[in-house]
Prior knowledge:
Layout: E1 8-15, E2 22-27, E3 38-39, E4 41-44, H1 51-63, E5 66-81, E6 84-96, E7 109-115, H2 124-130, H3 134-148
Parallel strand pairs: 1-6
Antiparallel strand pairs: 1-4, 2-3, 2-7, 5-6
Amino acid sequence: MSEETAPRLVVGALIRDRRDRIFVQRRSSGRRLFPECWDVVGGAVEEGESLLDALHREIAEETGWRLRRVLARVAHEEWTANGLRHIESDYVVEVDGDLSSPELERDKHTEFAWIAAEEVSLLDENAQRSGSTFIKDVVTAAHAWLSDAPGKSRRAL
């Protein structure tokens, strides 16, 4: 497989708080992919970087928080955008830092929310904006894992 056709690896952090809510942030209107859609923390894995290293970096860059532990992988999906294949792995994680005050990358994200299991319908607007239910699906998967696994501490990476 040539470099041009190799899929891009992507990680997503489904950050949970003590009340088992999941952190989401709204992408700014100027973003090329999925403008004004809700998203989870994450991004592309850089060359030479492990999935765990990418999670650490993306969480720090997008929130200022520090990854404490990975609880579970809840999604592993392939998707295509602008003709480029992506393989995304999404993990339920816990972080250290002030969860009430993320340091958002303001040019990339305009607001944030903590989503409880009964509040995932907030993410329905993504389907209206982009035609995608991906973020709602992974947040729902995180909530399903959390409800089935209270107290679990297994590592997923």
